Amino acid sequence: MKIKFLGAAREVTGSKTLITLDNGKKILLDCGMFQGKGQETDAMNRNLGFEPGEIDHIILSHAHIDHSGLIPYVYRLGFRGSVICTNATRDLCAIMLADSGHIQESDTEMHNKKRARQGLPPVKPIYVRQDALNCMELFIGTAQNRKFYISDNVKVRFTTTGHLLGAGTAVIEITENGKVTKIGYTGDIGRPSSRLLKAPEPFAQVDYLITESTYGDRLHPHIKAAEEDLLRVVKEACVDREGKLIIPSFAIGRTQELVYSLNNFFNDGRLPKVQIYVDSPLAVNATDIFRMHPECFNKEVLDVIEQEDDAFGFNSLHYVKTTEESKKLNNIKKPCVIISASGMMEAGRIKHHLANNISNPRNTILCVGYCAPRTLGAKIINGEPVVSIFGVNYAVNAKIERIEAFSGHGDYNEMLDFLKCQDKKLLKKTFLVHGDYEAQLFYRDRMKEAGFGDIEIPESGNEFVL
Question: What is the pTM of this model?
Answer without folding.
Answer: 0.90
